[in-house]
Amino acid sequence: MAKKGRDYFGLSRIVSIILAIIPFTAWILGAITRFKEGKLVAGLIRLVFGFTIVWILDLIFMIVKGRIMRLLNI
Fold first, then answer.
1. From residue 67, how far is each of 8, 38, 55, 61 by CA, in Å?
2. What is the pLDDT of residues 22-69, one digit of tens each?
3. Residue 6 scores a pLDDT above 50
4. 68 within 8 A of 9, measured Cβ to Cβ
5. Alpha carbon of 44 to those of 14, 15, 49, 59, 74: distances in Å?
């Protein structure tokens, strides 16, 4: 069973890491996650800059912490 509060819709950590490895899914799911949290500015930034360093940082954070990077809480 997936732990509550995990990113990518509460999926297991292994599935979330696999989804984070694929750049397109990491880009879309990262933006959707931030919009779902009510963080509109952070979601828009992920849509614009999601294929750059944000993707690499998300992958590292997903492996280490099981959550995507949260730079802005706006």
1. 8, 16, 13, 6
2. 989 999 998 998 899 899 998 898 898 878 888 898 899 999 988 888
3. yes
4. no
5. 26, 24, 9, 19, 11
Exposed, middle or buried by CB within 10 Å (0-12, 13-18, 19+), for 41? exposed
Task: Kindly state the tokens that stand for 42.
Answer: 């952070």
Residue-level pLDDT at 1? 42
Residue 18 CB-density burial (10 A; 0-12 exposed, 13-18 middle, 19+ buried) = middle
> What per-residue confidence (pLDDT) applies to 2?
44
How far is Cα 55 from Cα 59, in angstroms, rounded to an integer? 6
